[in-house]
């Protein structure tokens, strides 16, 4: 009886051990075949396998400029260029210095001159520049505080004209178009002075002066041919011109850069921004007849 009871206990213990062994094997198998769960700390510490792109370096582009309308047009495109990684710095400077500053690499470009003016100074000053971007024309006009029309110009009237070569030629051509004078033939270099006049029916007396002084001197003259940017700076309404150039003027104001820099990516982006439909609308809305888009 005791033996049989003992046998039964041993048998039961053996069976229980087999069951425990089976459970242990199953747990081990599941543990080895399942992926290990990562702890939050391990996940946070694990480096990202995705490559990180280095932030693009912003490029600074410095442009020497006349004040109006040049700097205003440049400032209008600043936000668009900023989006493209270009920090546009506009420096309003004496126009007589802007080409030399460009030559000396103190600025990246300038925006104040038209091509005939540039052509008149580039050889003398040895400027190795190009003009890749035409932006606007400022039709030059005839202004007076004493006269109401061209027909009121009297015999011997004192007429002010710019004294720099290309603008002096431009002013004389405008007066010729109005039938007030006649220039000699063969003036092909955009240069002329009153000495090149061969017919002057009203015996006009010409006062040659620095362009910025002409607006201030109107009270001392019967009239003057003055650049539009100077008229705007002097707070004179450009619509008061007795007559002006038409929209076909060849005197487009340009962005000028050192030769080779026209291929720089930031200069190309500047050109695209300045000749966009947004800039055309800005010019037309802000300046009306006094500034005309050249693109």
From TrEMBL:
Keywords, comma-separated and alphabetical: Lipoprotein, Membrane, Palmitate, Signal
Family matches, as Gene3D superfamilies: Periplasmic binding protein-like II
Main localization (coarse): membrane
Lineage: superkingdom: Bacteria
Membrane topology: Lipid-anchor
Signal sequence interval, chain numbering: 1-21
One Pfam family linked to the record: Lipoprotein_9
Compositionally biased residues, Low complexity: 31-52
Region (Disordered): 31-55
Compartments it resides in: Membrane
InterPro entries according to UniProt: Lipoprotein_NlpA (IPR004872)
Family statement drawn from the similarity comment of this UniProt entry: Belongs to the nlpA lipoprotein family.
UniProt-recorded name of the protein: Lipoprotein
Source species: Paenibacillus marchantiophytorum
């Amino acid at each position: 009886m005791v033996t049989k009871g003992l046998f039964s206990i041993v048998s039961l213990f053996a069976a229980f051990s087999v069951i425990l062994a089976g459970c242990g094997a199953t747990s081990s198998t599941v543990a080895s075949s399942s992926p290990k769960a990562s702890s939050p700390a391990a996940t946070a510490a694990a480096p990202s396998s995705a490559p990180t792109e280095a932030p693009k370096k912003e490029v600074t582009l410095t442009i020497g400029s006349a004040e109006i309308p040049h700097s205003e047009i440049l400032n209008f495109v600043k936000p668009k260029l900023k989006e493209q990684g270009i920090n546009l710095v506009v420096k309003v400077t004496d126009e007589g210095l802007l080409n030399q500053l460009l030559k000396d690499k103190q600025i990246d470009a300038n925006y104040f001159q038209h091509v005939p003016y540039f052509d008149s100074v580039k050889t003398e000053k040895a400027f190795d520049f190009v003009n890749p971007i035409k932006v606007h024309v400022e039709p030059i006009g005839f202004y007076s505080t004493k006269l109401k029309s061209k027909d009121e110009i009297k015999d011997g009237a004192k007429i002010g004209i710019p004294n720099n070569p290309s603008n002096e030629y431009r002013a004389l051509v405008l007066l010729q178009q109005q039938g007030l004078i006649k220039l000699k033939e063969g003036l092909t270099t955009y240069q002329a002075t009153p000495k090149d006049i061969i017919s002057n029916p009203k015996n006009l007396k010409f006062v040659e002066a620095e362009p910025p002084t002409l607006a201030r001197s109107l009270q001392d003259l019967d009239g003057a041919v003055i650049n539009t940017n100077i008229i705007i700076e002097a707070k004179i309404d450009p619509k008061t011109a007795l007559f002006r150039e038409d929209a076909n003027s060849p005197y487009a104001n340009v962005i000028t850069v050192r030769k080779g820099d026209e291929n720089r990516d930031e200069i190309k982006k500047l050109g695209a921004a300045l000749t966009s439909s947004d800039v055309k609308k800005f010019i037309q809305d802000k300046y009306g007849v006094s500034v005309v888009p050249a693109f």
